[in-house]
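Query protein
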Amino acid sequence: MGSGSRYQLTPDRPPADQLLLDVRKERIEQILALRTRTVTVVLDRLEDGFNMAAVLRTCEGMGVQEVQVVVNPEVPFVPHPKVTQGCEKWLDVHLYESFAACREHLKSRGFEILASAAQPDGRSLFSLRFDRKLALVFGNERFGVSPEALAGSDGVFWIPMRGFTQSLNVSAAVAACLVRAMSWREEHLGGRGDLTRSETEALRLRFQMLSVKQRERLYRTKRSTLKGAR
């Protein structure tokens, strides 16, 4: 599921940047400078549309460009639109029919995969480094991370808790982890993003087109909002 519709320029249509105010173009540049593809979130068989939506909104707001989704075979991945408020269009959301397919995709790109689970051998969130390709896996609201995901991950991490409550709602857990990740990157890397030049150029064009109010009329949709499951 690759969120964010892709649009195609045609000879008789003006480039999107000519239709935007300077303040909007400046905002796009600010966001591009902070965007990351080296930190990603993996959602393992979620059930609740509100949680799905809340996670997407958090990821986009924290500058995470990609979200990986292992689809629950019993519940379609349909984030609640009143929660997302359209944020999904700015993201790349990839759907997978199994964790094995998700793992193959991430490992082929050099990601370390860590599953969120309260286990004795787990690492504290506060001990993790966020200067490399890292995928954080979050599990089902009722059952947690699946056995398949646990077995296929490179390790386990947990969020330190200081009360009687020993777990967080999945959307709250993602938010806590991404705030930690971005604060770590701010402290150690200066808070900058990590897009390549080609990634920046591609996203710039996409974000500019998505910022045009009449984009559906001006530009032909090149692909659907979401990428099909692998």
About this structure: The CA atoms of residues 160 and 196 lie 34 Å apart. The longest strand covers residues 39-44.
